[in-house]
Request: fold
Amino acid sequence: MTNEDLEEGIEAIRFLSEEIGPRPSASPEEAAAGLYLADRFQKLGLKPETEGFRSARSFGPAYLIIFGLATLACFAKRGPFRFLLGGVAAGLGIADGRFSRFGASALTKWRRSRNLHVSIEPSGPVEQTVCLVSHLDSSRSGLMFHPRVTPVLGKLVAATGAALVVQGLEPLVGRGPGRSLVFMARALCALACGLVLEREVRGQNVAGANDNASGVGACLALATCLTAEPLERTRVVVLATGSEESGVIGMSEFLKRHDTEEWTFINFDGVSADASLRVLSKEGGPLGAVDADQELLRLATVVGERDPELKAVPLEHGSGLPYDATPVLVAGGHAISVVNQDGAIPDYHWPSDRFDHVSPDAFKRAVRFARVLLAEIDS
Reply:
């Protein structure tokens, strides 16, 4: 991998975060990011394909439905209607956590988004396929993403998920000593509803240099390298998803439309922060976590053993929210996410996620790690 390949990726981060700026899910700016990437791919001699799908601008409306129903159940009189509201809220939350078409997100897809992908063929016969993934859109700030909150965001997300389940099981646990547990669950559901509403009303769209222009830049740098020097027996698909920040909708749609049963997915999300190189050993959303692919974790360890500068220490729960790799893992597929972080994700969904906070050295390290990991998979 040449320095020119890496600089191509850094320029992509700059262009997406400064020239285009904030890229909300299913927005014209997200579409502009896709057009920019398609142009870069075409200049490499690749043929980008675009697939549109119904989408949402934010995860806010879906979660307002879920937590709103749970909160409404708190104020309903004890009886079948109250139990029904709590049960429906828990059911919708579980369905969304499992990326089901019957989740609350299905009720909020009023816009259009798109995925973009290209294929890079190997020098020899195709024996396997690896998909490099990043998302085009950026997120929105809010008190839930305040820098003082993000270090414990994963625990808060898990707690609110558990609160939804407890609220749904109120007929079974809401008597005697269980009343205190139900009361705490109601308080958490109401708090979650308020935080989501605050984000939708008072939050601001962020430039998303690290999250996730850096992921797009990493995939472009790798595509530039692999076009000149293909792998021997591995087809590489480079996928840029839309609407990751509104509920991982783009990846979910891609998996529905393509037979990816034997594919391996490497996801890049936030790889330009000035922090340690990591691979996530667990990923998940509000109602549970899934383990990353053990073979990919093993190969990541091999890369670090051969070159200590590229050591990627496994990290549990990068943010507490799902990544593009999460739907793959939920479906039993092979996936891993590459990130740069130690504790909380630096500048996570905050106005400070700008290009001047990007670390070129940390970005280049993550891309070099991925290139060596690809060589390990290919061999």
The first helix runs from residue 3 to 20. The chain has two domains: 3-55+111-141+205-378, 60-104+144-202. The chain has twelve helices and nine strands.
